[in-house]
Amino acid sequence: MLREPLTMFCYTDLSGAVRGKGFPSRLLEKRLKGGIGWTPTNLMFTALGTIAESVWGSFGDLTLMPDPDTRVEVEFGDGTPAERFYLCDVHDTDGTPWNCCPRTLLKEAVAALKARTGLTLRATFEHEFVYAGAHARTADNYALDAVRRHGAFGETFLAALTAAGVPVDSYLSEFAPGQFEVTVPPLEPLAACDAAVTLKEMARATAWRLDSSVSFSPRLSPDGLGSGVHIHFSLWDEAGDPVSHAASGPHGVSARAGSFLAGIVRHMPALLAFTAPSPVSYLRLVPHAWTGIWSNIGVRDREAGIRICPTFGQSEEATARQFNFEFRAADATANPYLALAVIIRAGLAGLDENLTMPDPTVGEDPEAMTPATREARSIARLPSSVDAAMAALAADATVQGFLPKPLLEAYRVNKAGEFAIARDWAPEEICRRYAEIY
Ligand code: GLU
Ligand code: MG
Q1: Which sequence spans correspond to the domains of the chain?
Q2: To test ligand 1's pocket by mutation, which of 125, 227, 283 has the most ligand atoms within 8 angstroms of CB?
Q3: Is the CB–ligand 1 distance for residue 128 below 6 Å?
Q4: Which atom of ligand 1 is nearest to the CA of 128?
Q5: 290 in contact with ligand 1, CB cutoff 6 A
Q6: Please, are residues 90 and 117 in contact by the beta-carbon 8 Å criterion?
Q7: Residues 6 or more apart from 368 whose CB is under 8 A from it?
Q8: Which one-letter DSSP state was computed for residue 383?
Q9: Which of 167, 252, 305, 383 has its Cα between 20 and 30 A from that of 54?
Q10: Is this model's pTM higher than 0.85 or not?
């Protein structure tokens, strides 16, 4: 059959969908220089496929400008067309970054952190997902047989990730039937977000070739188990040395990392408007489901909002290099660039103000504390609905300031458009619809 190789230029939109336009691959050289045309109102596509009210209407033009470092070309060797795409920034037609570009927002947050503190972040997004072709059974958690029964998916997925330039650290069968988890090593923030986007696309690309599907949706049924996206991060200085750890600091946390975490804790309710931004997010963020529903920093606690992760081995150097934190109240309905940008900005606000880290919890359940104790320890219940998360954003002028006004407004209107449609859906319906999308 005749074939013309096709390359796509894509960006990740406000609800985390990867959208863009394609062209014959033989025009790549020209397109790498000039990009491809895009339309401002496309930013108002909601997660549910509608177009929210747009200030741009039918007017204006933009360009999707590819980042050559994000090139993906993956041949599955089964006769299907290769996966060929680049991730892009959104530019105005004069070549400057558009003030509503999510990838640019992250770059600017990284640059601000570096300029003001000399620090950078290394981050990784730990993904859980459910594979429909898993031949799942009860008690599949961590089972060797579950990996066997899900057939070629795992090995093909891992090969696709390697071919796409996403290094894999581990792969496993998670708690829920058909649920798997993949982790990748920490990268600098932009590369970490690009890897998160490519990883989900490679999972979808693999499942599609096996006549099946995957879902990264935070909950597939109201009474099932959740799929989270845990955002791990650590701080590094300009010399490339780790600075999150101090042997003498509380639970090994350095003063600078403590201020960074304190900033996140202070703004965490509003951050959820970006990290857990859908109605379905809050079917996952429920008590005692191994997700973060409090703004606490917990020592090796998988129900903390921020977990101080374990390190392995005894040398001080290894500890310092491994030492990292995990933001657990995030999921795949988020745009990773927005999510990491606001986390960095909140951390930077903590550093700017030289905040002291609230006392971490050690083997304690915030739910069992009195409200007075929680308040004294700066532990807030995180929003329990997407409306509450948007209200927390509306009440937090600092977090609002993390985004240029037009992007913040577009985000609010886009999300409001999505929520209005989902408003009357029962939990089952929410799960069903979002499973299809994510
Ligand atoms: N599936 C849980 C979540 O929704 C996390 C389980 C784990 O700790 O890996 O976040
Ligand atoms: Mg997990």
Answers
A1: 6-104, 105-437
A2: 227
A3: yes
A4: 1
A5: yes
A6: no
A7: none
A8: P
A9: 383
A10: yes
CB of 417 shorter than 6 A to ligand 1: no
Output DSSP code: residue 98.
P
**Which atom from ligand 1 is nearest to the alpha carbon of 179?**
1
Q: Contact at 8 Å (CB) between 110 and 342?
A: no
Query: 215 alpha carbon to ligand 1 midpoint, in Å?
Result: 15
Does the beta carbon of 251 sit less than 6 angstroms from any atom of ligand 1? no
Strand partners, 88: 66
For Cα atoms 92, 93, 97, give the angle at the middle one, nearest 5 degrees: 25
Fold for the domain defined by 105-437: Creatine Kinase; Chain A, domain 2 (3.30.590)
Does residue 314 register a pLDDT over 90? Answer: no
- Partners of 297 in the β-ladder: 306
155-188 residue pLDDT tens: 999 999 999 999 999 999 999 999 999 999 999 9
pLDDT at 224 over 90: no
Instruction: Report how far residue 139's alpha carbon sits from residue 179's, in angstroms, rounded to the nearest whole number.
Output: 11
Distance 343 CA to ligand 2 centre (A): 21
**Residue-level pLDDT at 42:** 97
Ion ligand 2 residues within 5 Å by Cβ: 181
